[in-house]
Amino acid sequence: MNPHDPHHDHSGHDHDHGFKGHSHGANERQIAIAAVLTGGFMIAEVVGGLVSGSLALLADAGHMLTDFAALALGWFAFRLSRKPGDADRTYGYDRFEVLVAFVNGLALFVIAGFIVVEAIRRFMNPAEVMGGTMMAIAVGGLIVNIAVFFVLHSADRDNLNIRGAVLHVLGDLLGSVAAIIAAGVILWTGWTPIDPILSVLVSLIILVSAYRLVRDAGHVLLEGTPKTIAVKDLEPALVEAVDGLRSVHHVHVWSITPERPMATLHACIAEGADGTQITRAIKRELKSRFSIGHATVEIEFGRCADEGLQRPGAHSHHHADAGHRHTHHGAAHGEDALTKPA
What we know:
Blueprint: H1 17-52, H2 55-80, H3 96-124, H4 131-153, H5 160-189, H6 194-221, H7 231-241, E1 245-255, E2 261-269, H8 275-290, E3 294-300, E4 316-319, E5 324-327, E6 338-339
């Protein structure tokens, strides 16, 4: 890519490296503290659950295990994302955070399934539960989870790893409350079935967190349009705001991470209009109105450069505003081009 190309403009490629570095540094520290607190008490819960015979404690420990793994991998992802892009990964390593969140979400489904199976076994073969030990461990878990929640509360809530961690911790808070309730019932009434009943409740909480993580991480991995951006609003907004812009099509919006939305588009402009100035205006508008800091814009006069280049059988759409027909060619990036009709 030639930086002196008059039709290529870097004004829309502001990656906010300074802010990102500061934000990631703060997130990294907070997620490390949360991981240490969560991992330490997870071990205490496993020991307490085995000693007391409480499935609810073991279920909550299983949830905390996934939390610890999520936090530890999240910390590693922040460390890895410091590496700059290279010839093999031109966007860098930021998306590793999303991959970590997706894997952790899948692991949550496995943990939840194990808890439900064990709860059914406990219903069929009730076991003795030491209510006092269970209560002490559960109260300790609640205190730790509250501390972890406050550590993460001041972090960047738009970050997928941080958001996932907060969801996990909220699930842990409810799990600790469930264990406390179960311990109280056992101490006062001796009714042990409350333990597997509430452990199933904890597993449902885990499943909710798992679904959200897998859904949101999968959306990013599948190049889905960020939920904060409506493509149908983007096209008319640009045409209205940028003088000389006739129509916009071939719009693709996706994200490397939820904090890094990207876009490519074709812009059909009026004959005689300045392509470089319009490109800059489009990028400024994308940045200010839609928070898209990286955009590739292809300038066209009259005809779409992709006309007649469709692959046989490819999925295509009509664009009523410009009469264009295009193929979803993925998130291909080329240099901003000035294309005139043949």
